[in-house]
Amino acid sequence: MRYEPLNLGRWIVWGAMALVFIVVPLAFSGGFALTMLIQMGTLIIFALSYNMLLGQGGMLSFGHAVYSGLGAYLAVHTLNLIGKGAFPFPVTLLPLIGGFAGLLFGVLFGYVTTRRAGTTFALISLGIGEMVFACVLMFPGFFGGEAGVSTNRVVGQPFLGITYGPAIQVYYLVATWCFLSIVAMFALTQTPLGRMANAVRDNPERAEFVGYDTQKVRFLQLVLASFFAGVSGALSCINFEIVSSENVSALRSAGVLMATYIGGVPFFLGPILGAIVFIFFAVALSGFTKAWLLYLGLFFVTVVLYAPGGIVSILLMQIPVLRAGRLRELLWPYALAAGAALIAMVGLIGIVEMVYRLSEQGASTVLNVFGMSFDARTTAPWIGFALILAAGIVALRFASRLVGARWGAIQQDLLARQP
Amino acid sequence: MSANAIELRDVHKSFGKTKIINGVSLAIGKGERHAIIGPNGAGKSTLYNLISGRYEVSSGNILLNGEDITGLRPFEINRKGLSRSFQVTNIFHNMSVYENVRCAVLWAAGYRYSFWHRVGGLRDVQQRAEEVMEKIGLARRRNVLAGTLTYAEQRALEIGITIAGGANVILLDEPTAGMSRSETARAIELVRSVTEGRTLIMVEHDMGVVFGLADRISVLVYGEIIASGTQEEIQANTAVQEAYLGAAHKELADA
Questions:
Q1: In chain A, which residues touch B (CB < 8 A)?
Q2: What are the residue boundaries of the structural domains of chain B, listed by start?
Q3: Which CATH number, 2.40.30, 1.10.3470, 2.60.40, 1.10.8, labels domain A8-310?
Q4: What is the DSSP code string of A167-200?
Q5: Terminal CA-to-CA distance of chain B, rounded, Å?
Q6: What residue of B is the nearest CA neighbor of A220?
Q7: Is pLDDT of A369 > 90?
Q8: Does the interface predicted TM-score (ipTM) exceed 0.90?
Q9: What integer pLDDT is reported at residue B246 of this predicted model?
């Protein structure tokens, strides 16, 4: 392998990423956009941390929120102590408190969970998640019970005018930590431990016979991942100024699993993209409809079924076709498939929204979409949306067959050209 | 330094009520190339799994370079200088040839569980991995995914992974199984060169390979060693002829 002391390509990629972090709030400066960006940054760290387990270490965890949540609790109490003047500590470094809290609990729980891999690991992680959630409700003195622990992030003396009062300052705090965490977690994939985590994931037996204790590899990988989970927990504590049992809940653990999977487990970039998409669903879409969780679920199932490598895998599959200059042949089929999917979605959304209107007591049964209104108590819109859905599905089948045929032909040509 | 490389003292292994290994005692000197032969189901692979720590012995002791390694885990035994290959190819299929070899070098090179070294910058690891790839003839295939190698190449990589850590006792489980005649000839040369100056223990069915490589041979039948000696001694041994060759004849007749 060539020795490259100065890897220019890598510097350009990291530089561009830093630039995006700096510039993005200038392009989307609205209060709502900023809220979303802050949550995206937080979830990116959390999802990348999760993928250190699932993607790199082959550990399917159902309880990763334990580490971010407990990190958040420690952070919120620290913040409150700083607020009371117990000791001076910069809020900027609060994520370190969260990180080390996460790491500590990683050592504690990881010792138990990582003794086994596979299904056993998954089940124990689920059990520990439930256990921690129960404990949080059992000790309201520390965890604040149902209501949680609230705080005020504007504490101590302003440093260079930074108080973390305005959201834009919180954004840059999150962006800085997010950038550093991405760099650190990428660097970890390039270390002996990172590589052996892959080895243990792929073939634990062989890893044992080249001198590695697979249990210890899993344990260390989980402890490091817990640190970043804790960092993300502390950032969410600073952002929302409240930490409650929801932070350690199974719902949160499932959320990060979905975000990571949607983006693409086999790729380092996957969780980053997945976190962005997930926040779109959870924050943007939830403002429009109460059915957002259902849509997210449907989207997740679609990805699991048809693109198990996530969004990133779909994007990466296009690269060889693009290089061969043949992406143009696929543009029409793609557009057709997108159009068909859109039609099917219109039908589906119409039906789902009408169901929600009917099920909600006291709510108006009139649905206002596409500049028209439909009353869910009449039959006509049901038939209409059902027909649209059916037409969309038929069109989608046709379009996907077309895409499949073209795609197959191109792949065959590309294979034939290889030496 | 006078201790044997491997010493088995009255080793037993049973699965439930089935006795697979029935009091095996065996001493293999340092630098010796030793072959274990025997009919199918004699317990050769089980014996390997016991020595390498994959299975726990039911009773008896196993010594590596004079040190008791009975009951140690596979990675502990590996760190003490014993490395093994597998009958069914056992490599990292989703990694490149280079990465496969590198994984096998890391522990021995002292990087252990390090998460502060950049693996691409470890010159000593790189150099060692290059040497191994050169030795096993896969230097040109370094960036190929191990899962897409040809069968013979995978077998060579299997040997590469086994020797990469620099272990002084090498266990090879049927290194030429399923190979063509020319591939076998190359594999014998490979095994001979990579085990230069080390202790080799091999399980093998192909008598050509055994007689071509081994200094001494042990015959395992029904979980017991019925004879141990040089090629000539084994060939002249009537018990072996009866038990092993008789069984082999029977196998032929059954086929």
A1: 1, 3, 187-188, 190-196, 198-199, 202-203, 205-214, 216-217, 220, 224
A2: 6-254
A3: 1.10.3470
A4: HHHHHHHHHHHHHHHHHHHHHHHTSHHHHHHHHH
A5: 48
A6: B113
A7: no
A8: yes
A9: 61
